[in-house]
Amino acid sequence: MTEDAFTVMAHAALKIGIRIPEAQPVRRLYEQQYLCDYLLKWGINCVFDVGANNGKYAHHLRMMGYEGYIFSFEPIQKDYLELSRLSQEDARWKTFNFALGNEHSRKPFNIIEQSGTVFSSFLEPKFQAKKNVEMIEVKRLDSIFPELVSGIENPRVFLKTDTQGYDIEVVQGIGNRIDDIIGLQAELSVTPIYEESPHYTKSLMYFESLGFSLMNLFVVNRGKHGSILEYDCLMTRLERFIA
């Protein structure tokens, strides 16, 4: 079938009311496919998984065939225990029970008891939720970066950060080692659900100021009437790392 014939058929289907359902499993499969191809294209052999939660992101990387190193950071003890269980037989998957940020400190952290702990954050939620506040350890990534990549031949690093409004601070903590980061995946808040959460345009402008180019956007979730609440952005430092 030619492209023109397909377009005619597609428009005819739309005209009579046929719609393709926006099924979440199908959308997630496309996102996973894109990420898998991205890691292969850029030769990524080292993933920093910041805000690892219970390890699903890293586990999915393994299921997709990624065989490089993974360094997962998760401060919540309950989630960290599950993360450790998943990674315990994987020699190239290391886990750390602290948070990353733009300073070395101990800070109050809101553990939200809603839908697991996926909404837990340093920031105050705008929604009503049961929460516990714990003091957790925070480190800068640049202080541990040399130790993490030691022994990895030609490390090509991809940073994934999902910290519920704290991603800019995580990236700030990379300091001068930003030159070693090839790719970035971060969550952008379009409709903020936390107090003082940076607007998505501010986050994008900051990442772009560091030399990252936007490669793709994926909808994380929508509001009641279809508005975008959050995006995942995928970015690359094209000028520095293009072959």
From TrEMBL:
Q: What is this protein called?
A: Methyltransferase, FkbM family
Instruction: Note the Pfam families from the entry.
Output: Methyltransf_21
Q: Which GO terms describe its molecular function?
A: methyltransferase activity
Q: Which GO terms describe its biological process?
A: methylation
Q: Which residues form the Methyltransferase FkbM domain?
A: 49-213
State the InterPro entries in the record. FkbM_Methyltransferase, FkbM_mtfrase, SAM-dependent_MTases_sf
**Cross-referenced Gene3D superfamilies:** Vaccinia Virus protein VP39
UniProt keyword terms in alphabetical order? Methyltransferase, Transferase
